[in-house]
Structure formats: C-alpha cells, structure tokens
Amino acid sequence: MSAADITAEHHDEHHDHGPAKGFTRWLYTTNHKDIGSMYLWFSLAMFLVGGCMALVIRAELFQPGLQLVEPGFFNQMTTMHGLIMVFGAVMPAFVGLANWMVPMMIGAPDMALPRMNNWSFWILPFAFGMLLLTLFMDGGAPNFGWTFYAPLSTTYAPPSVTFFIFAVHMMGISSIMGAINIVATILNMRAPGMTLMKMPLFVWTWLITAYLLIAVMPVLAGVVTMMLMDIHFGTSFFDAAGGGDPVLFQHVFWFFGHPEVYIMILPAFGIVSAIIPTFARKQLFGYASMVYATASIAFLSFIVWAHHMFTVGMPLAGELFFMFATMLIAVPTGVKVFNWIATMWRGSMTFETPMLFAIAFVILFTIGGLSGLMLAIAPADFQYHDTYFVVAHFHYVLVPGAIFSIMAAVYYWLPKWTGHQLNESAGKFHFWMSFIGVNITFFPMHFIGLAGMPRRIPDYALQFADFNAIATVGAFIFGFSQLIFVWNVIQNIRSGKKAEARCWEGAEGLEWEVPSPAPYHTFTTPPKFEGAK
Amino acid sequence: MEIRKSILRGSLLGALATPSAAFADWGINMPVGVTEISRSVFSLHMTIFWVCVAIAVVVFGVMFYSMFHHRKSRGAKSAHFHENTTVEVIWTVIPVAILVAMAVPSAATLIEMYDPSDAEIDVQVTGYQWKWKYDYLDEEISFFSNLSTPRDAIYNAEQKGQNYLLEVDNHLVVPVDTKIRFLLTANDVIHSWWVPDLAVKKDAIPGFINEAWTIIERPGIYRGQCTELCGKDHGYMPVVVEAVSKQDYAAWVAKTKAEASAKADLANKSWTLDELMTEGEQVYLKACAACHQPNGEGLPGAFPALKNSPIAVGDVAAHIDIVVNGKPGTAMQAYKDQLSAVEMAAVITYERNAWGNNTGEAVTPSQIADMSWDMDRLMAVGEEAYLKACAACHQPNGQGIPGAFPSLVGTDIVKGDIAAHIDIVVNGKAGSAMQAFKDQLSPEEIAAVVTYERNAWGNNVGDSVKPSTVASWNGGGK
Amino acid sequence: MSVAADTKKLVARLVLGTVLMFGFGFAMVPIYNVFCEITGLNGKITRTGEAEEPLVVNQDRTIKVRFISVFNEEMPWEFEPLQKVYRVNPGQMQQTAFVARNPTANNMVAQAIPSVSPSEAAQYLQKVNCFCFDRQPLDAGAQAEMPMVFFIDPEIPEHLDSITLSYTLFDITDQQQLVEASKNNNDKRSTL
C-alpha cells in the first residue's frame, strides 16, 4: 500500500531507533505524537495563564468597590482571559488530542502533512508570547473584550491592537493549516476497510470541525485585516464617518464567532462518544444519528450568528429568523445527549476518572445548553444580553463542557501515551474538587445576571455582592484544583503500574491494539480493519 | 388580534409561575417590571425556564436512574442494542414540537416590541464615554446624566450608599401612561441603554439611530446600566429613569426649562444697552424703588439718591460691589442672594444711565458672576469639578495613564498658553478621547477646573480664569 | 492514485477553499451594503433623486418626519434644521434646509451621515437632493444653508406613521487634508 511506501521512506531517515535526542527533537519533530504532546503542554500552560487572569478578575469582583486593580487593567484581564482560553487553551488542546489520536484511530502512521504539522504548532508559542507581552506596552494589552467590537477596537484602541491583530493572524494560520492536515489525513489515510461510517466518532467530529475551521478562520482573518486597514490605512469599514458601519463588524465577526463555538465543542462530543461506551461496556447508541446530528449542528451553526446581536437594532424579520434558527439548533444537540444516555442505559457501568468527567460533561453541558435555549428567545434575550446570565451560559458549556472533555480525554488516553495506569484516587480527587468548584463559581452567575448585573464590569451595585463573593470562592477552589491535575499528569508520566494495550476493559478501537506506551511509530503497516462502530 | 391572544396564552403559562415573581425580591430572578412588555418578557422567561427545568428533570432523572441501576458493581450486564430509528424519530420530533410551542408567544412578544407607531414623547439618548445625554426633542431640554457615587465610596474610603453605582446627578424624568420613544445613538464607541424594569435594552451606535419605546404604568425610580463594553468606565455609567404622574412631569418640564433659560441668559453675550435698560427698569421698580424711589431721588436722610450720585456715575466696581454685597451697617442689602446675575447687571446698568446719569456704561451679567470668583473659590470648586469630570482619565494626582491619558503635571498644556488650555477643555480635542466639556460643565466650573489644573500638583503657574472668559469663548480666539 | 497524489489534490482544494473564504469575508462588506440597499434594512437612506413617476399625494394620511442633529465627538459646529418636525402626506414634496455654522477660528470640513429609524422606513423616505455623504467645508466663522427636498413614498405601509432622520456630523478636516495633499482636489460644495 502506498501508505507503507511513505513510511518506509521515513524509516530510511530515522533508522528506526525512536526519537532524536535533545531539545532539537522538539524543534524539528514531524511525529504526530510529539506534536500532539507539544500542543497539549502548550495548552496546559495557556490554561494556567488564562486561569490566573480569571483569578485576578474574580478577586477584584469578590467585593463591591475597587480593591486590587484599576478598571482599565480589569478590561485587559477580561479581554486576555477570553483570548487565551479560547485560542490558547481550548483549541490547541483539541488539536493536540487530534494529533495524538486521529492517526492511531484510523490506522495511519502519521498525519498527511507532517512538516506542516510542525509549523502549525510552532507558530503558537510565538503568537501568544507576543500577545502576552502586550501587557507591558504603553496603553496596556488589548482591553476591548475578546469579541473586540469596533470602534472600541479600532479608533479607540491602545497601541497593542496591532500586535493583537498580528497574533490573531498567526494563530489563525496555525488553525487553518492544522485543519487542512486533519481533513487530508482522515479522508486519505484510513486503513483499508474503514469506511467513513465506521470511523470512531472522535474522528468524525474532528473531520467536521476541520471543515468549520477552514470555512470560518479565514473570515476572522478578514475581519482583523479590515480592522488593521481602518486603524492604519484610512479605510472606513467600521467607521460611520467614512460611510462604514460598526454593526458590519459584528456581523462579520459573529459569522466566524458562532461556528467558532461549535469548533470548540464538537471534538468534545467526539471524546465523550468514545469514553461513555467504554465505561458502559456498550456500543455507542445511534452511531449514524450521531454523525448526522453533528453534521446538522455544523451546518446550522452558519445561519444563527446574529443571536449574539439581538439588541443591535436589527429589523424584525432578521430577529425572528435568527431566533427560530437558533432554537432549531437545540434539536440535534438534544439528540446527541439522548444518544449518550441511551448508551449508558442497560450498560454495565464503572466510574473511573474519565467516566466521571464524561458524565459531568453530559449533565453540566446540558445545563449550559438549556440556558442557551433561554437566550435564544429574542424578547427575553433583551433582558439577558450582556449580563452575567450570558457569562454563566458560556462558561457552563466551555468549562464543564469543553475543558472537562479535554481532561476526560487526557485521563482516558494518558495510559496509552505513558504506559502507566492512572492513579485513580488522585484523579477522582481532582474531579470532585473541579466539579464542586465549577458549580460554585458559575451557577450563581445565572442569578446575578437575571438580577441585572452587566458583563465586563470591575465593580457592581450592592445587591450583587453575595453571589459574587460565592463565585469568587468557587473560582479559587476550581483554579487551585487544577494544580492537582498538573501533578497527576506529571506523576503518571514518571511512574505508575504498567498499563496494558487495552487500558480500559470496555475500550474498542485501533488505538487500543497498539502497546502502551504507544511506540514512536505506529501502524507503519496499515492494519486490517473489520470492526464496525 | 392573534398577537394579543398569543400573548395571553403565554401569560397564562407564565401565570402558572407567578409565585416565582416573588423570587425577584431575592435578587435571583429577572424583575417583572412596570410595563406590559416587561410583564410579557417575564412570563416568556419563566415559561422557557420551567420548560428547561422539566427537560432537565426528565433527562437527568433517566441518567441518574441508569447510573444507579446499570452499574457493573451491582451486577448489571450490558445489553447489546445500539440503534433504534423509531426512538430517534421520537426524540427529534418531541423537542421540535416543544420549540414550536415556545416560538409562537416569543414571536408575538417580539412583534409587539417592534411597534413603530408614533409616540407622545421623543427622547434622544446619546451614549458618551462614560455618561448619558438626554434630549427631550420637543421641549428643548437637554442634560447629561453622570454617575453621582463619590470616588471615595468606590475606593472604599467611605461607606457605600444603598444605590451604589446606580445613582446619577440628573434623572431621566418621564410621565407614566405615555408612550415614550427613545432614539439612541452614541458619541464615540458603541454603548447600550438598559432599564430592566422596562425591559428596554438597545445598543447606542455612533453615526446611527436606533429606536425603542415604553409605556410605564407605575411611578417610581427605575435603575439600569450600560450593557456594552465601552472602555474604562463601562461599569460606571448607570441609567436612572424617574417616572412621575403627568402633572408632575409637566411641572418638571416647566421648572427645568426655566432653569435652563436662566443659565442661558447668563451666558448670553449679546446684551445691548437697550436690553439691559429695559430689563433693569423692571428690576429697579421691583427691588429698589421702594427705597430709592422710581425717580431715583431717594428719601433725603433715609435712602440716598441715585440720580447724579457718585456711586452711580463713579467707579463701576464700587457700584457693583454695593449692589452685590450690600453695605454693612446700613439698610442696603446684599442683592446677590435675591437677584440673579442678569437682574443685577441690568439694574446697575439702568441706574448708571437713567434719570440723566447717562454714563453710557453697561454692566454684563458675566461681570457680575466673575466678581465672586476669587482664587480660593476657583481652586476649591476647581478641585471638585476636576475629581468629578477629569480624574477618571487624568487621575486624581494629575499624572494620567501613560499611553492612554496625558499627564497634567508640569506639561505644556497646563503651563503654557492659557488660551490653548481653555480651548482644549471647552472644545475638546478632535480625534482623541478628550471631550468638549462646554456642554457638560458650566462656565464657572470650567474656569475653576482650568485654574485648578494650572496651580495644583506643584504646577503653580499663578494665573486664573474668569467664568466670563469661558462663557464667551467661541472656540479658538477672540 | 497514490495517497500522496490524492493528498496533494485535496490539500490544493482545501487551500483554495481557505482563500475563497478569506475573500468571502471581504465580500461580506459589499454584500451587506447591497442587502441593506435592497431591503432598506439598516436605516441607511438609499433613495435619492427625482421620483420615477408623477407623485400621487395621499391626503388621508399624515406621516411625522423628525430631524435630529448629532455631533460626533463634540464636533463644534452648529447644525440645525429650519424646522425639526414636519407632518407630510405621502407623495407630498417637502422643502426644508439645514443651517450649518462653523463657530471656531479654524477652517474645517464636515461629513454628515444620515440614519433613519425605524430602519424599514428608510426605503420610503426619498430625497430629491441631499447633502449627505458630501464633504462640506466651512471656513472659520462661516455659515451655510443647505436645502433639502424630500418626499415619502406613497407606497409606505399603513403601520408606519413616524420617521426619524438623524444626521451625525463628523469632523473630517484631518482626513480631508490628507486627501487633498495627495490628490490636489478643489473644495467640493454640496449640490443644491
């Protein structure tokens, strides 16, 4: 087979004795496992940095009044927290998981374009290093929210906005290249016998996510380029004085922005669809339905963007359309939740750490999804928009949603990567602290949002004080619990009982056919694949 | 109309949840509000909330049951089924049905909210960094509404009041039971105007006009905030609507217009001699003739004559002083507390020209105003105005924020040409965040704040600005 | 075909897709404007010029038309309509004027940007001539009266009875100086 020809060439170069030694191994590696690991470490570092910013925010919001930071710096913290978490933690983590697992899951020796894979990763530390350094510039880091509406982000922006635009371009190129790589790998390098409808769901969700990335990251590049032109080259895309329209910015941004949030959740759906069947010892219920539901969500995600803009003064017809389309997107999402529960139903469940995170995902993501349904009701949204109710909604879908799924995935596949069984009690400790912390932090935000507290404010009226204090306590619990996670990962890398090839009793899939830890090169010869998923 | 029926249906559903309206008091729920629309919105909110709760109960119930009963440790053996088209169809169709049921009252309320029919009162709401401006378009009333919570409360140096961060110097006063249309725009970046009790939230976008409307059913004070990130003090620009009865509103309009025109009179720089004489005669007859007699001849031995008197034809400053401050130890009162600056200027002008006095001199209202502004008063008022209107950007210590807001300590603007300094405060600096304060601060406050900036923090330039200079400033030079 | 060749073709297509989507992002700008023009949706007035057919005045309805001036960033000019509120019949030609005055000591150039509310009314408000989107220069202390003739399209739906037209005045003196420096243009007075 041709795949074997390619890998044979690789072998001629590597002499088949495993990875290179020294620092340059990481600089030059084209190995999907190495690159996957780098993405994951980078994402963990960004998660901790973004988390510190969150703690600065929550510390200031512990009490009414300004105690710790000035409002200008507070705005920098909220902006950078959002940018770092979205683009530096969640997305690279999913890419890292894709890099590690997709080739193994489809029986391929590596990604389709290994060198582009290396470039995709290495752009990121530079992009985010530059973004973080803007904190030290005159005028400070970007302070206009991660959604950077014009003209606050154009005419009224600090000098760091240009570096922000540059960082977004770099990070976007990284994502696009990564996505192209994933599509090419999945479409062209599956083991013989693995038809599309026999791929693991994690592969399916990443295939669809990759298409979404290719479709919308260039639009983000376009909108920041228009910003750049308005700021430095005298154009008026978003400047009313020159005939432009600030609302146009919002349309173009959210045309990217809404598919972006599905980019951040579809891989999570795939992870949960791998973990629940394993620990329920029962095949995923409704595989075909899950694939169609994922595809419907992806398609619908392109036509709902203006539900982020209900108060902008859109005409009635527009508001009605976006309200209906947004309500509709709840249907395929609900279908997926029902399918997971049907997988659990009459299974034979055990509750190891990955399963705990996966179950918490289903419950808490559903809560986030339901608050999203409330937000879809446009006339009610007039009371929710830009309040803490929205903050509660998206943190529920992103933290116990995306982040929990990433942790679930790490706990699930760590034994495969390191060859060591998990320390279950350590994992469970991390889980319970995180679960408790996350709910104490974000559940009260529903209430203060409904009671009238706006977003992105460093100080608030007295009636919001109690729940803000509670949320802050929860944030510190959740934040410090992540140190347990770091410890767990490092500990597992260095020690632990030997793990089998099939680390989990109920696990199915090609990745469980190779030894643990997975050899540096796997599936250099494509496997024969017969199993149906 | 079908729309009304749908709202009724939705409200009935919501009425089932009316006990939850009480939760609004606990600070955990949306307020019911004081308009028909706000009540519809509240009931939509409660309806979708209970629908979500019901879904969650069912879904999580099944999950928890399964997690309990289908555990390996309980001896459960896994079944082998893994697909069922019928069940997939069912659990697709049922959610769609629920959503369609929700969509109907939601669309109905939205359509009601988009009612563009004519309103009785039009108020233009303009978002500024970081305050609101309200223009009553049919009444020629216009004012800014600034946060009135003191800095000390924000920085924890003093107790926070009950309406901390939700109080302003000038409320938006409106009548109840009247359709009010808000026309929203912005002066700089995008802001958003929100009053939860009215369920009105609309973005204020520079260069564009948006509209929203409300009919408030109950008098009261309704507080809201800006809800679109607009820079540093986004959290410090609240909205306060005061709804009053129609009679009270009419009275407030009359009072506000009177105050505004009194202020305008003072700044009016085109008082001719004739105008002052006409006004002055009225004032004289009202306030002075009782003692000094209509013919200016006074009562010998009791009240001095003004006709041909050294006071009335001699040094102007002395004449002004005796009218403004009175003459202690005599019956001549200090009229500064009884007459406006316009009235005093007019009456002095009259006295200097009537009954053959004919000095030809006119005294302007601003000259009168300037008199009471010595250095001490300028610095004291200046500091107050500075903290209120300038310190947010330039900082209480005058040092600004490097890269964002310039320092005023020892810099060219405050130590150099005083005309340039006055101009930049009055007219702002186009293309920057420095606003024109001529519409936001009175001429007295501007004169005081410029004086303060030139002398505080060790600047010690030593000069000062008179309110009349600012009042007649035409934007760049004489 | 070999995997390598397949991959090359696929990657080429995906890269093309990326480039097309980048272009689409920019294309959204004119698409947005065209969409707004056709539907009149974002309140930008698009109808200018003479009426296409002779107008039939509908005496049975009155539409309230209100003019508002907004001064962006404390633009120091005075800019007021001769009359703030008009009650017109659909189809009736109405003449009005805006008076602009530059009270400063500097020569300035301004841009007047119109916006209509409710946005659906924009397509029914037709200006026979207008000074919007024109660069309006005024010397220090100078004043200009800018006439405007408008009518409401008789097709205007029943439920619309009040229209607000705002002009936001922007100071574009700096931008104009840049343009003039590079193009050596003369002043452009508004069309009367």
Structure description:
The complex is a heterotrimer of chains A (533), B (478) and C (192). Chain A is mostly helical and 533 residues long. Chain A contains 17 helices and no strands. The model of chain A is unreliable at 1-15 (pLDDT under 50). Chain B is an alpha+beta fold and 478 residues long. Helices cover 25% and strands 33% of the residues of chain C. Chain C has a five-stranded mixed β-sheet with strand order 3-1-9-5-7, with helices on one face. Chain C has a four-stranded antiparallel β-sheet with strand order 2-4-8-6, with no helix packed on it. The chains are: A mainly alpha (533), B alpha+beta (478), C alpha+beta (192). Chains in contact: A-B, A-C, B-C. At the A-B interface, helix 4, helix 10, helix 11, helix 12 and helix 13 of A face helix 2, helix 3, strand 7 and strand 9 of B.
Any idea of the CATH class of the largest domain in chain C? Mainly Beta
Number of helices of chain A: 17
**Residues in helix, % of chain A:** 55-70%
- Which homologous superfamily in CATH is the superfamily of the largest domain in chain C? Ctag/Cox11
* Order of adjacent strands in the largest pleated sheet of chain C: 3-1-9-5-7
Give a brief rundown of this model.
Chain A is mainly α and 533 residues long.
Walk me through the topology.
The complex is a heterotrimer of chains A (533), B (478) and C (192).
Chain A: H1 2-14, H2 23-28, H3 32-60, H4 71-106, H5 114-133, H6 161-188, H7 201-232, H8 246-263, H9 266-280, H10 287-300, H11 316-328, H12 330-344, H13 353-376, H14 378-384, H15 388-418, H16 424-451, H17 465-494
Helix pairs in contact in A: 3-4, 3-5, 3-17, 4-6, 4-15, 5-6, 6-7, 7-8, 7-9, 7-10, 9-12, 9-13, 9-15, 10-12, 12-13, 13-15, 13-16, 15-16, 15-17, 16-17
Chain B: H1 2-15, H2 36-69, H3 85-113, E1 121-128, E2 131-136, E3 141-145, H4 151-154, E4 172-175, E5 179-186, E6 191-195, E7 200-204, E8 210-215, E9 220-226, E10 239-244, H5 246-267, H6 273-287, H7 289-292, H8 310-313, H9 316-325, H10 341-353, H11 365-371, H12 375-389, H13 391-394, H14 412-415, H15 418-427, H16 443-455, H17 467-471
Parallel strand pairs in B: 1-5, 4-10
Antiparallel strand pairs in B: 1-2, 2-3, 5-8, 6-7, 6-9, 9-10
Chain C: H1 3-39, E1 63-71, E2 78-81, E3 85-88, E4 94-101, E5 108-117, E6 125-129, E7 135-138, E8 143-152, E9 162-171, H2 173-183
Parallel strand pairs in C: 1-9
Antiparallel strand pairs in C: 1-3, 2-4, 4-8, 5-7, 5-9, 6-8
